[in-house]
């Protein structure tokens, strides 16, 4: 049987108190709606449909082009939202799986279990329930004496006996496609002027049809995001899941509670992560690395056997065997080749440091290409900005840049060339030449320096 997911994401999310649509609030580095999509895409046979409404253009822009959208122009309840998808969904599958854009903690295996129950259900509908002591305002599942589901009663209209029920409705359904659309038209408008999917249960029962239920084993999966408090609760749950996943994959996380790893990060085996480390965006970490403490890496690729201590890395590439920190900063488009070492308080931006380069502390390298095995002395600065434009610095292989050298770009330093400490280099330096001074000039030995003095 083919399964078509329909994700309801049209609501305004008033309780978030935000100008941003609720389903676009970030969780573990992704908008809520992206979590919902990735979950259902693992169980779908037909591309999902997202029902959008409030700030529809903004939500649509956050979706992949392959995702289909249906517009709910008026928000008149969950039943009305599903009706908005009829033109795209009717006849496209055997089953319709209905979930929500603000339920990021559902597991694919949970949805597979619900789908499997409906495949074996003689009736048209199966739903996901949860048992919790705190009902969170959810509707109560009503069963008859034989345990069959007969209705869902909303908390606002439930009797005291019904309120005591702890089996709750999550709002997630798997429904036979051919039955759904006609049944939706039988839903009566509520006193609030809305059409509720919960009424489908009573409609099915009134037709003598069986309704099945799957009860969640983990109540955390039922958490929906309605407030920023809920968002923080979901963040804590997802952080634990992500940390557990990587520890089971062979990564050592010294203190998971103080380590933040976003959903799109990948980490190699035998890497060790110390506290207060943040791995964000589309970051990949190689094997046998040591990260942190107090390190932030975002949208970057880190090779094998790298050590990053108390540093910040943004949109950069580190090859294998890098040593850097503490207090280094790689700004976007920094590329460190194999074996580079960076001392404390070094900064690199839009530059390539070749294999084996040693960069001393308190140095800045921007818009530069540094040849292999070059030594960058402490306090070296590439003066790459003239007030209007950025200019490039090029340094050849095996060069030696003395401490406190100012390289005024555009400038080229040849292979094996040297600069004296405190030099200000304003012109190109040929291969094998040494320059010193302000401005730097070729260094010429005096006669005394050329001829050893007699004692």
What descriptive keywords fit this protein?
Spore Coat Polysaccharide Biosynthesis Protein SpsA, Chain A; EC 2.3.1.157; 9-stranded parallel sheet; alpha/beta; magnesium; acyltransferase; disordered C terminus; 10 helices; 455 residues; Hexapep; 29% strand; elongated; UDP N-Acetylglucosamine Acyltransferase, domain 1
Provide structural commentary.
There is one protein chain. By secondary structure, this protein is an alpha/beta fold. The chain folds into 2 domains: 3-222, Spore Coat Polysaccharide Biosynthesis Protein SpsA, Chain A, CATH 3.90.550; 251-442, UDP N-Acetylglucosamine Acyltransferase, domain 1 (3 Solenoid), CATH 2.160.10.10. 18% of the residues lie in helices and 29% in strands. It contains 10 helices and 42 strands. The strands form 7 sheets. It has a 12-stranded mixed sheet, covered by helices on one side. Strand 8 and strand 9 (149-153) form a beta hairpin. The termini are far apart. Mean pLDDT is 94; it is low at 451-455. InterPro entries: Bifunctional_GlmU, BRCT_dom, GlmU-like, GlmU_C_LbH, Hexapep, MobA-like_NTP_Trfase, Nucleotide-diphossugar_trans, Trimer_LpxA-like_sf.
Shape: elongated
Radius of gyration: 31 Å
Mean pLDDT level: 94
Biggest β-sheet strands, sense, barrel: 12 strands, mixed
Q: In CATH's first tier, which class of the largest domain applies? A: Alpha Beta
CATH architecture of the largest domain: Alpha-Beta Complex
Q: How many β strands by DSSP?
A: 42
Stretches where pLDDT falls below 50 for ≥5 residues? Answer: 451-455
Pfam families: Hexapep (PF00132), Hexapep_2 (PF14602), NTP_transf_3 (PF12804)
Protein name: Bifunctional protein GlmU
Active site: 361 (proton acceptor)
GO cellular component, one term: membrane
